[in-house]
Specification:
Blueprint lengths: L16 H9 L24 H5 L3 H6 L9 H19 L6 E3 L5 H7 L6 E6 L7 H13 L4 E6 H4 L10 E6 L2 E7 L11 H8 L13 H22 L16
Parallel strand pairs: 1-3, 2-3
Antiparallel strand pairs: 2-4, 4-5
Helix pairs in contact: 6-8, 8-9
Length: about 250
């Protein structure tokens, strides 16, 4: 009579407990794992909203046909508006630094230049202590807001016999006219001036410190956040306390 034996054979690639022991002892070669298809995960449909449009380049937005947005007329209008914003920003001149000008260049590089773009001109004297806060802040603003032309000029070169008591003098120009002159440090609350605080002050007289594609509210919120971060870093630098050299408020009159 034949001797029948039953052998268990699991799925391909699966090993028994005995085989696992032999593999650990080196008596058997490890089996190749059986191929398994990846688990199906349906792709999430990308929602088209204003944030999605803001992240696109001009070419990407122009490739989108109006038919793609036919179910959302408001979103399509925003897309077209965004394309115009990008084109307008690209057409704006880019400065990015504070230019030192001579008094003889004032009309050309300030008055006439302001007919095309916003201009902020600082009149100062070298070594005059009250001028230092603005001299320190302007380069950062010029770099951050390159659509505005920032210049500086020696006060005596621009206005002979101008008194030091009236320095620093920051002149804001637009459309060929001086729209505001800020004399001394009182308009900024004192000498504890930061670039963000200066930007907030300038923007009360026009969009001097606004990035391309930003509106005034976005710029203000960004500057307030940056100011809060700078002040927090300052406190951390002094161990969570106020600057020991500053006995009064940063913005005292």
């Amino acid at each position: 009579m034949a001797d029948y034996h039953t052998y268990y054979k699991g799925p391909e690639g699966e090993t028994t407990q005995w085989e696992d022991i032999q593999i650990r002892l080196g008596n058997l070669a490890p089996k190749e794992k059986a191929w398994k298809p990846e688990k199906y995960a349906p792709e999430e449909e990308l929602s088209k909203n204003k944030e999605w449009i803001d992240a696109k380049t001009q070419d990407e937005l122009e490739e989108g046909l109006d038919e793609e947005f036919q179910d959302d007329r408001a979103l399509n209008e925003y897309r077209l508006q965004r394309i115009q914003q990008i084109k307008a920003a690209a057409a704006k001149p880019k400065f990015g630094t504070v230019e030192l000008i001579r008094g003889s260049e004032f009309v050309q590089k300030v008055t006439q230049a302001s007919e095309k773009y916003l201009v902020a001109c600082l009149l100062y004297r070298e070594g005059h202590i009250p001028c230092r806060p603005l001299l320190q802040c302007l380069p950062e603003l010029a770099s951050k807001y390159p659509s505005t032309k920032f210049v500086q000029c020696f006060a005596q070169d621009a206005i002979p016999n101008y008194p030091d008591a009236g320095l620093p003098l920051l002149l804001l120009y637009k459309d060929g006219q001086c729209v505001k002159n800020l004399q001394g440090l009182k308009p900024y609350g004192g000498d504890k001036l930061t670039p963000e605080h200066l930007a907030l002050v300038l923007n009360t007289f026009g969009p001097y410190c606004i990035r391309d594609g930003e509106d005034e509210d976005q710029a203000t919120n960004d500057q307030i956040r940056s100011l809060a971060t700078r002040l927090a870093d300052k406190r951390a630098e002094y161990g969570g306390t106020k600057d020991p050299e500053d006995e009064s408020s940063d913005f005292d009159d």
